[in-house]
Amino acid sequence: MGPRELDLALQEARHHTLSLFEALAALGYDQATQVPRLATLNPPLWELGHVAWFAEWFVLRDAASSTPGDAHGASLLAHGDRWFDSNTVPHAMRWVLDLPVPDTLKTYCGEVLDRIRARLAAAGKDDRALYPYRLVLAHEDMHGEALLYTLQTLGAAWPASGSHLAGASDPLAPGELAFPGGSLLRGGEQSRGFVFDNERQAAPCRIDPFAIDAGLVSNAAYAEFMLDGGYECERYWSDAGRAWLRQGQRSAPRYWQPDGMGGWHTVRFGTLAALDLAEPVRHVSLHEAEAYCSWAGRRLPREEEWEYAATSGDSGFSWGQLWEWTASPFLPYTGFVADRYREYSAPYFGSRQSLRGASFATPWRLRSPHFRNFYTPERDDIFTGFRTCAR
Question: pTM for this one?
């Protein structure tokens, strides 16, 4: 994106953020004290302020890094650094901060965006000059998707601003694709544009021959696993998976509910609906994906295999409906160096699992076959599914 495209995208992202906040406020969740203290959520009021503060920090205050004190001048919002710097405000503290009222934060959001747009109009067009604008756009886009996880978790309705994301699922691609293997430039071409630090440094990677599902595992296929005692048969589950099952007393994916007639309902943004068996299974943890693979005599793809298939040019490989668990722990590529947003990747290496692709809630500009998402194995609140590989 050049300056003009970035300007439009920044406006669109902020409009989307505000509409998501309003959707939560309509349910009474505009104050931190009204939101359940869940590890997977942020108070929406804090999240709104943090998104604007992050943009101010890297663009208006010309921060060289995310290290506290590494920005010029003070925040436009008194106490902004004390409230919204995620490096210095632990997750649990975000519920008890003396945050300003929503209207004050909305005014702050508007002023930050206006000043960023004015600065962008005079910015250069090279990658170095546009880096901070691209970074804050990606950051807000990711928080937008996280706010949609919050809406799903709290049972809030899908906002009107997201209608372009909420279309019906594409049909699942049938069958399996075989790839002969070869060399993959992992991370892709990086000579221009924006690249996240965990995708660097691009280097050739050797891929052995493999076969992978053309599409995601469906609700129907997953229901067969359940009907065959998948949740009761411990041999399909890892030690961590068995502990997760016991802790949550799980017997079905999150949001599945028996319909009383041998079938299933599911809950989507606060609405109970019949489960569409043809759709990909959604809201499953890594533990559930691994157990299904064990039952089916399959395995999850490694992330380099997924990237190889997605960049092969084979139109039979369908992706972008849901994030996809892989068999790969989230680790740095050789030569990794943290970017200005130092806490984006480095603190999570070795404690998260890599996911690939995108979901229906991911803005198009963030979709890339090289993008590495990462979450802890138990997370099933995110819009994620999986596909399998032959062993």
Answer: 0.95
